[in-house]
Amino acid sequence: MGKQAKLELDGKTYILPVVVGSEGEHGVDISTLRQTSGLITLDDGYGNTGSCVSKITFIDGDKGILRYRGYPIEELAEKSTFIEAAYLIIYGELPTSAQLKRFSDLLTANEMLHESMKNHFATFPATAHPMAILSSMINAVSCYHPRLIEGYKADMFDVQAARLLSKVRTIAAFAYRVSRGLPAIYPKPSYKYTANFLHMMFSEPYQDYDLKPEVVRALDLIFLLHADHEQNCSTSTVRMIASSQANLFASAAGGVCALWGPLHGGANQAVIEMLEDIHRSGDDGSRFIAAAKDKNSGKRLMGFGHRVYKNYDPRAKIIKAQCDNLLKVLNISDPLLDIAKHLEEAALKDSYFVERKLYPNVDFYSGIIMRAIGIPKEMFTVIFAIGRMPGWIANYKEIVDHQGTRIYRPRQIYTGETERHFVSLNQRKSKA
Ligand code: ACO
Description:
The protein is mostly helical. Helix content is 51%, strand content 6%.
């Protein structure tokens, strides 16, 4: 018999099994608790709830460890590419050369959008945020591939996954071009994933974008570092939608919406806006740090803090080094980088941030790299979404492959009015 936990309440004892993960994490399995005791657990914001067992990504937030399928993020960042890591995340193993070629070929075969989809882009106002366009258009793809909405079919999964991963990049680039009033640039089958995205963003019909290898590598690294991060807000949203047996594209479109918020993926845009504000105001960051510590100011040090990491986010270390390197290669001196470094140094010495274990997260330096590449800030969260696609696809797959997946349906403790009776309109009095 495995480990067990005991819960005592009102003179009764309930025995609960303990699930032990491969890295020694323990979770009390309460799935039968309501049945046996009438009790549910309450965990506002799910901070202490394991919503699933998963084999995809391991994080040790206290030690600052992140591994995709067991491989440390530092090794993948140094030796791998986004597409190889995507394969690893989705299928569980690093690909052989033949598998990688087949995967790349599938991505290339699915890179075009149905020509009619261009009409949809044209109908968004020029001021539309590209995250809204991205989410809408990912969902719209299923209108052009009706078999998608038939739901999960194991024999179709490879094509569906490649279709999503490949088309999301085309959609993102088109959204940017349309928002600038620029003509759409079609993908080039001879280009690899990240180079092709940069080409669709920045080439012109009369001139190809100059693909600098350092720029391609820096963006590829950003995609790779965002590729999965276990049960965060957007991935949990994807799993939630997938659990209702909605299709992969509907699930991913929901993930984009969840990612958009400034406390999640939207933080990379919020960081740059914060740094721009600080720069404009002539502050070296000290005034902002003071405001971020004051709960009444409504300000937070964006790009700092994380629900899981109570240590330096390992992705932030890699991105910071890449940021220094890229700016040097491109010969760019960005005052925002100096402010960011000053903010980091000051925060890491400040008891407010130290006591709360608030460290830079993945978003703190990524925006400075994207700025250097020429990606506008409203596209930052879109870049995050492209990067996160393998993680969403893998989590979708875990849900649909798992025998006996139940629809996600948490409970609640109701604290509203108890039963009362309908009052007709002419007899109601305002309670406000
Ligand atoms: N600046 C100032 N104070 C902060 C910050 C911050 N960035 N982050 C947390 N705190 C404080 C909170 O006010 C709280 O203080 P208190 O204990 O005195 O009330 C304490 O630290 C704990 O913070 P919570 O909000 O309870 O932590 P939670 O785990 O719910 O939130 C989050 C994590 C949302 C990431 C938070 O740290 C934050 O808002 N950071 C800024 C936004 C950001 O960078 N988001 C990106 C996260 S990474 C990602 O999604 C890719």
